[in-house]
Amino acid sequence: MSDASSPATATAPDMLELAALLCSRVCHDLISPVGAIVNGLEVLDDDPKPDDREFALDLIRKSAKTASARLQFCRLAFGAAGSSGAQIDVGDAQTMARGHIEDGKCSITWNLPRLLLPKNRVKLLLNMLVVSQHTIPRGGMLTVDPIGEGETMSFRITATGHNARLPQNIAELLSGERGPAADAHAIQPYYTRLLAQACGLTVTLKHEGEAIIVTAS
């Protein structure tokens, strides 16, 4: 009889499953705005009154903008984003983060200098922002600060908002401690841990006063 695998090994998805789960995550992010575009087009097909027509066009415009912002963000946060060893402008990452996250409820204070960083560090930063956003479901502020400088810079994100909380099992998935299988809901923090490991870093998630802190160091 073979030895039992460790909890972290037993729950880790293989490469094909990881790819499938990440695709599911991206589709989940796009379903809402794309569905709203379809609804707006259906209203237009019904030859609506002028007021209804303007409402439908406004819905299509806003939803198309949201879908575009989410696609750009996901391409950088989850996709290849350039060749192996490529560097990415942190300023571009800021633009994509704001387009994806800032929605009238959640805003970002960005304290990082503008410089080129290895792509995996930028991908890690964007995924840390998604983790942080989940800790303030009613909205609030995400403050992004650097740890260190230059190409070895890492990050600290402080999430503040009403009823800021630690989502169930997310801290365990980030740290590699015992946690649930990485399913479509949990794959994003699991992927964040993989990115941190590729950068030689560890991601932690903890309470600090009334704030939630996500740190890569």
TrEMBL record:
Gene3D superfamilies: 1.10.287.130, Histidine kinase-like ATPase, C-terminal domain (3.30.565.10)
Pfam families: HPTransfase (PF10090)
Keyword Transferase: yes
Residue ranges occupied by any Histidine phosphotransferase ChpT C-terminal domain in the UniProt entry: 91-210
Coiled-coil regions listed: none
InterPro entries: ChpT_C (IPR018762), HATPase_C_sf (IPR036890)
Keywords: Transferase
A GO MF term: transferase activity
The protein's name: Histidine phosphotransferase
Species for this entry: Bradyrhizobium betae
